[in-house]
Amino acid sequence: MTHYAKRNGRRQKPRRSAKVGLPPGTIQTDPNAEETKIRAICYGPDALEEVKISRPSQIAPLLKRWPKVWIDIAGLGSAQTISELGQSLNLHPLAVEDSVHVHQRAKVDDFGDHLFIVARMCNPGEKHVTEQCTMFLRTGMLVTFQERMGDSWGSIRERLRLGRGPLRTQGVDYLAYLLLDAMVDSYFPTLEAIGDQLDEYDERLADDDLTPNFQQLHQTRHQLLSLRRAIRPHRDMVNELVRDDCQFISSETRVFLRDCYDHVIQLLDMVESYRELTADLREFQMSLVGKRMNEIMKVLTVISTLFMPLSFIVGLYGMNFNTASPWNMPELNWRLGYPFSLGLMLASIVGMLYFFRRRGWF
Amino acid sequence: MTHYAKRNGRRQKPRRSAKVGLPPGTIQTDPNAEETKIRAICYGPDALEEVKISRPSQIAPLLKRWPKVWIDIAGLGSAQTISELGQSLNLHPLAVEDSVHVHQRAKVDDFGDHLFIVARMCNPGEKHVTEQCTMFLRTGMLVTFQERMGDSWGSIRERLRLGRGPLRTQGVDYLAYLLLDAMVDSYFPTLEAIGDQLDEYDERLADDDLTPNFQQLHQTRHQLLSLRRAIRPHRDMVNELVRDDCQFISSETRVFLRDCYDHVIQLLDMVESYRELTADLREFQMSLVGKRMNEIMKVLTVISTLFMPLSFIVGLYGMNFNTASPWNMPELNWRLGYPFSLGLMLASIVGMLYFFRRRGWF
Amino acid sequence: MTHYAKRNGRRQKPRRSAKVGLPPGTIQTDPNAEETKIRAICYGPDALEEVKISRPSQIAPLLKRWPKVWIDIAGLGSAQTISELGQSLNLHPLAVEDSVHVHQRAKVDDFGDHLFIVARMCNPGEKHVTEQCTMFLRTGMLVTFQERMGDSWGSIRERLRLGRGPLRTQGVDYLAYLLLDAMVDSYFPTLEAIGDQLDEYDERLADDDLTPNFQQLHQTRHQLLSLRRAIRPHRDMVNELVRDDCQFISSETRVFLRDCYDHVIQLLDMVESYRELTADLREFQMSLVGKRMNEIMKVLTVISTLFMPLSFIVGLYGMNFNTASPWNMPELNWRLGYPFSLGLMLASIVGMLYFFRRRGWF
Amino acid sequence: MTHYAKRNGRRQKPRRSAKVGLPPGTIQTDPNAEETKIRAICYGPDALEEVKISRPSQIAPLLKRWPKVWIDIAGLGSAQTISELGQSLNLHPLAVEDSVHVHQRAKVDDFGDHLFIVARMCNPGEKHVTEQCTMFLRTGMLVTFQERMGDSWGSIRERLRLGRGPLRTQGVDYLAYLLLDAMVDSYFPTLEAIGDQLDEYDERLADDDLTPNFQQLHQTRHQLLSLRRAIRPHRDMVNELVRDDCQFISSETRVFLRDCYDHVIQLLDMVESYRELTADLREFQMSLVGKRMNEIMKVLTVISTLFMPLSFIVGLYGMNFNTASPWNMPELNWRLGYPFSLGLMLASIVGMLYFFRRRGWF
Amino acid sequence: MTHYAKRNGRRQKPRRSAKVGLPPGTIQTDPNAEETKIRAICYGPDALEEVKISRPSQIAPLLKRWPKVWIDIAGLGSAQTISELGQSLNLHPLAVEDSVHVHQRAKVDDFGDHLFIVARMCNPGEKHVTEQCTMFLRTGMLVTFQERMGDSWGSIRERLRLGRGPLRTQGVDYLAYLLLDAMVDSYFPTLEAIGDQLDEYDERLADDDLTPNFQQLHQTRHQLLSLRRAIRPHRDMVNELVRDDCQFISSETRVFLRDCYDHVIQLLDMVESYRELTADLREFQMSLVGKRMNEIMKVLTVISTLFMPLSFIVGLYGMNFNTASPWNMPELNWRLGYPFSLGLMLASIVGMLYFFRRRGWF
User: Fold this and answer.
1) How many CB pairs under 8 A join D and E?
2) Which residue segments constitute the domains of chain D, with CATH numbers given?
């Protein structure tokens, strides 16, 4: 779906059209997807237990025993497991389908007894620039689907284990906020790197160094286009979470989500600014290239035009007219014919230079 | 109406102006339209019957006998039949007229006792890029009009016959959703093909291969323009179906329509991204072409300017001044006149090259 | 006001500024306007009478005697008559003023006891591209003002006379709808002609035929700009008629106006698409022209550069150095001097061609 | 603030930054401003009195004696007088401050006991293109501030004196509408002049006359930018007056303001159309210039390339090879050597022309 | 974050990504930040006391003793102090965190028991173009955070000390307004300087002086981009303060904030106009450069083409054909051969000039 994805392996690209013609709710896994690994992190204010889940039926007892359970699923390769899990937890089939088809835009859907959130995080330096993550949020239960076990949520898992901060005492909606915030913040390093590149590009152009090529600028524009397409839907999604009177999100968490919303706006702001900046830089570079070419043309004009009459004069006195007749090139027989011709050339040069100077050509 | 249509047969293009001056509700069929074929698919949870309809009066008994009836009409050539059918089913004349004039934008109209939906599907590789389909939705009855018997609804008909999924037990609104979803999804393969073309184009430019011509890019832009014009009205149409409290659509189907709405948004997203990408690619290619031309100009400048003084010098010593006078070209009589002139030429070349190098021209 | 108007007779252009400084409600007729002709078409379900009106006082008895009266005014030259007519029918002075000053944008104004509608129709092939028509709508009475007696309403008058369709039984609001619809539909032929021109232009460019000149494209853009300016206000106008709970328009007519609204949207869609298409075509043509020029430049470069060393060599052996000295051009005395020089030239050509080929210049 | 202002006297430009750091409500007059002249026009249905005001305290008795008073202030040079006047009439200090600092955007502010309106009028041919006017509207009292005593309100003053029209019987809100309308209408002559210029420009380009220079087009764009910046805020301002249920504006006047709103929309429409038209014209002219240059290049190519082989051939037979050897230029000794060389030249010209013609270069 | 910042010291740029992975509410100070200095300005209608605060615990008694307290904090280097101060005053941790991370967009957040405002001021001529300031507003208490002790608030502190104006009697919300207004007004001098630069640029181009280089224009565009990004969020922020029924802002202050809102709109207006103007100027300059180049090309064409036939003729009569044969260049033996060749040249020049003139090339 993204620029980088294409480059490294065309076949990896999730294709939306592969699903055309299938009934809604069908779960069709990508043959290249990683194997599904399920982990339940069950916690309360004072305790925490991590359980590796091999069969979906293991989850129901955990939900009864623990006040809060985070079911952390990585890898979307096992259609059977995911389908069973969805049914056992009573998740909406369309939402489970969307979790597996990793080409969704960020959105939030309220299915009455659970909230479904799709978001995309940025994986700089990896094969897919943006990676889809989905969340199912219900009181006391958070289910998350990831394409791969990434490390951007690692520090949150660690904080949960250590029991630091209000994380253990707050509901799972606060945990969902933290995961969402981590996903949104994952775009900052990439965008800041782009900003640095553009600043450097700008400085080099300012120093009249035209070596940075259009290729680099074009790639950056392309990347920004992909990033904007990934980020923009988050605005509406987070905004909906902040505004709506949804039962699964407490008003305290809503205050934090407002902060998350500010970050999304800031990201879009950066993307838009950089898009405009790349356009400006392209125009700037093209005008510099044009100016440079103009200059070269001017020098060509001047040199060509200076030599044209000289070539004519030397050609003139190279003619073989029968010098016997007094009308035929008497200059050749003058005593100072040669110096006269040189003077003629000098005069033509001086005249030309005066003409060019008056026209302001150099 | 579309780019491809024009190419293959200009006369096929439905012209909106042909209707100017006629009273509203007049059904005027296109002389090139296919003959009308009507098929009724009557079904309940446990049974299904397919009936070929030759006279509209055959339909009323079916509607009484079966809980759900899909009247599937393909071909818009028989004005008489269509007009009678509309009257016998009490469909609004303006809507029936719109079903026959295949240049409508996607829309939904609530005529009180039935819902009228216009949508356009994408037929890649066929003569008309987009094809109009209209639906009349009433409790227990769905009437659909198609320009031609296509195969994009084939899998839905098959599923209906096999009785798989919730299709038989749900109302006709669910069937209408499935048909609509199939139409919306029909754009994905075409758009993905465009995306692949653009990626390939991009890669070739990145490899400094300027052979892909502007013609291809222009055609893609043109196609995207047509697609956007076809897709965009679907956004408002599906959104209206999702939002409005219309009696003909159940709340369960509404959840599925929300998914359909997401697909439309995703399509528009793709079209817009590709439009921007084509603009970027065009700019990129033009800057590459400009740079290339600049380079050629530079080489011309350098070679021309190097030879100009050489030509002057050889012309100079080709003059026929009377060498009897000591002032007239004494060099010709020097013992080393020729090597001197060659040295002069060499010096001019070296001087020029130094000048160009200092200016950073090569 | 429009492009074509300007071309044919600059003095004809209605100038908004002519009114500056006059009190509101002043009726100032254009000296070039046609003489005012008033015709009353009085009708009921079963009867119809057409009366030529010479004095506004003739109208009041007609309004009493007939259930529906259409007062059809063509020509805006007689200030006195129009002013009297406005007063006798109690029309708002600002609205009557707007009817005479033919530079209004389409709009609808509700003056409490009557509705005032301004619309513009398209007159292809005539002097003014768009012509203003205004309507005053009150229960049982419709007053229309036209610049000239046109024939676009001819078929409606004919249908009214023949009593076909629901025209006679419906209220005057249905008549107003029909007139409005005819005006909106009058843009389709012009826009379709533009579409055909652009398609032809596109095909010629695709065949690398650069003869269609920028002038034609620019004129089309200009015309589209004028058309958009004329059409766009109709969207809000018709929408207001559809939405508002105005007493003068029945709910049945409102359904028909929704169809009229769809047509306006479709017109704007076409205009916008064609605007974008002209921009694309311009860019495309400019890139083709640039590419063509590039090619010519390349051939020039190659030919020039091939001949430069040849000219130098022939010039070299045309020098008149005293061949008495052994250092002065010994080649001239070689037995094979001439073939040697020809070989030198051939070698320089081959070397150059190899250099160009390696650079990928041809 | 505007383009023209800058040209004629840079020091005249009101600078917003001069106020930075002062407490709000401070009245700081521009040293170049005209001296303040105050005139009260007191009127009722049957009578009118004009009083020259030298001290603000003169106003209170007039307000008591007359039902409607228009206090007409021209010139903003006397800080003391204006400040006193504001206090004596109980006008909001921020509004009085805005009246003196003539760089405000059009707006309306409701200060509870009076309405404050800022508008800008167009003074074609004068130093400042747009001039700020402010109004304070209260039942029975209208206070207006102008930079200079202009003549665009002259006809309204005259009508007031003559007692024509409903002016004397209506409230001061109707007077305010008339003044506002005059200000809005003041833009029409300037915009129509621009339209005429652009039409003329267009015609000259259409006639392939490239003499109109880019400078003129650029200035027009600049002027349109200034005009748009001045006009645009009027839209919201007048709209607010039309919509809001403000006590100081009667519903009859509101109908007239709707007309004024239409004019503002029309102005913006014209500005936007002309902006687009200038962009189109610029593109058109650049494409014409490019085409012209292309043509010149083509002729150069053809002529250069035709002469190149000729020059080579004449140079060839100008070489001085020792003709004693049979291998050294035997052509020179041929009986028909000269005609042979001429034939060679002719053949090269014909060959070249055939090559160019086949490439479609001329 | 801004253009200028980058130039002077890349390491100074606050990086948003530095915070990625930390729990929300963590205060992480920039190592380059200034040391934190806290000053409390306590005042009532009749008295004022300034206290230097070294420990946050000093503040509570002041808040009890004085009706209004402004806690003025400059320098964000001391994480410990700021964190304690936030806790002792019960400020929301997210807001305190935002105060320290100086890359926020302008916004307002209502935390129930206090209002949190972020704004950015413009520091022309300093290292960072825009500087973040945050305010916490509660009845009787205003806390402000600044990056550095600037002097843009100096005049307000002075007025507070002198007790001039309504500053002492109004609540702290009026003080907050004044500070906000000073921050908004701080952009005017920078924007006016840009406006002057652009006017000068424009005038120089109008005088056909192409020396101002694209670099300057590009930098101005870049600066405007940064300014727009900084200013735009203020619009929503101030608008929210004006509209919302927030308990901490009195209705009198709201009137003043409306004025502040007008200024923000005016700033955005200026930025947008200048952005468009720079684009226009760039286009204008490029068209001038293109025209200039065109002119040079034309002169080159003419001169080259004039000399080409001359060079050919002189080359022709420089050929060494054996003049013994009567067919070999008989002209060389003519009595008037030389004048004949000169006449031939003159004729070719005249012919060429006539050809060029007819084509309108000069």
Assistant:
1) 152
2) 3-287 (3.30.460.20), 296-358 (1.20.58.340)
- pLDDT score, position C208: 77
Tokens standing for residue A288: 């510099």
E294 near D293, Cβ under 8 Å?
yes
Instruction: Say which residues have a Cβ less than 8 Å from residue D137's Cβ, sequence separation at least 6.
Output: D114, D115, D116, D117, D172, D173, D176, D248, D249
> CB A259 to CB E94 under 8 A?
yes
Q: Are B93 and B103 in contact (CB under 8 A)?
A: no
Count of C-beta atoms within a 10 Å radius of residue A195: 18
Mean pLDDT of C338-362: 86
Asked whether E24 and E2 are in contact (CB, 8 A), the reply is no
In the chain, the amino acid numbered B239 is: N
Q: Give CA separation, B229 vs B183, B217, C270, D60, in Å.
A: 15, 18, 9, 65
Alpha helices (H) in chain A, listed in sequence order: 3-8, 59-65, 79-89, 93-100, 154-162, 172-185, 187-206, 214-243, 251-316, 337-358
For D71, phi then psi, to 5°, come to -100, 110
The strand ranges marked E within chain C are 37-43, 48-53, 68-74, 107-110, 115-122, 130-138, 141-146
In whole angstroms, what is the distance from residue E175 CA to residue E181 CA?
10
Burial class from Cβ neighbours inside 10 Å (0-12, 13-18, 19+) for residue E148 reads middle
Using alpha carbons, select from C316, C319, E319, C314 the residue that is nearest to residue B321: C319
Res D14 pLDDT > 60: no
Is the CB of residue D198 less than 8 Å from the CB of residue D277?
Answer: yes
* pLDDT, average across residues D8-33: 65
CB D133 within 8 A of CB D74: no
Q: Which residues of chain E are within 8 Å of residue A262 when distances are taken between CB atoms?
A: 104-105, 107
Nearest residue on chain C to D154, alpha-carbon basis: C21
* Touching chains, D (3+ CB pairs < 8 A): C, E
Whether E204 contacts chain D with CB within 8 A = no
Q: How far is C184 from chain B (nearest CA, A)?
A: 10
* Total-model pTM: 0.82
What CA–CA distances, in Å, run from A140 to A48, A116, A156, B203?
14, 15, 18, 49
Angle, CA C148 vertex, CA C144 and CA C151 arms, to 5°: 85
Distance, CA of E313 to CA of A316 (rounded, Å): 9
CA distance A30 to chain B (A): 17
E201-248 pLDDT, tens digit per residue, is 988 888 877 776 788 888 899 999 999 999 999 999 999 999 877 788
Query: Does this complex have an ipTM over 0.90?
Result: no
Q: Which of A13, A9, A216 is nearest to A103 (CA)?
A: A13
* pLDDT value, residue D134: 94
Q: Who contacts D192 (Cβ-Cβ below 8 Å, separation ≥6)?
A: C15, C16, C17
**Inter-chain CB proximity A321 and E311 less than 8 Å:** no
Rg, Å, chain A Cα set: 36
Alpha-carbon separation of residue A142 from A90, A207, A276, D112 (angstroms): 13, 54, 40, 54
Instruction: Give E57-118 as a DSSP string.
Output: GGHHHHHHH-SEEEEEEE----HHHHHHHHHHTT--HHHHHHHHSTTPPPEEEE-SSSEEEE
D108: which residues sit within 8 A by CB, 6+ positions away?
A: D115, D116, D117, D118, D237, D240, D241
Question: Which residues have C-beta within 8 Å of that of residue D155, sequence separation ≥ 6?
Answer: C21, D182
D83 SS3 class = helix
List CB contacts (< 8 A) between E14 and chain A. Answer: none
Taking only the tens place, the pLDDT of each residue in E81-131 is 999 999 999 999 889 999 998 888 999 988 888 999 999 998 776 555 788
Tens-place pLDDT, residues A53-80: 998 889 999 999 999 999 999 988 888 8
Task: Find out whether B317 and C321 touch, Cβ atoms under 8 Å.
Answer: yes
Distance (Å, whole) CA B92 – CA B305: 80
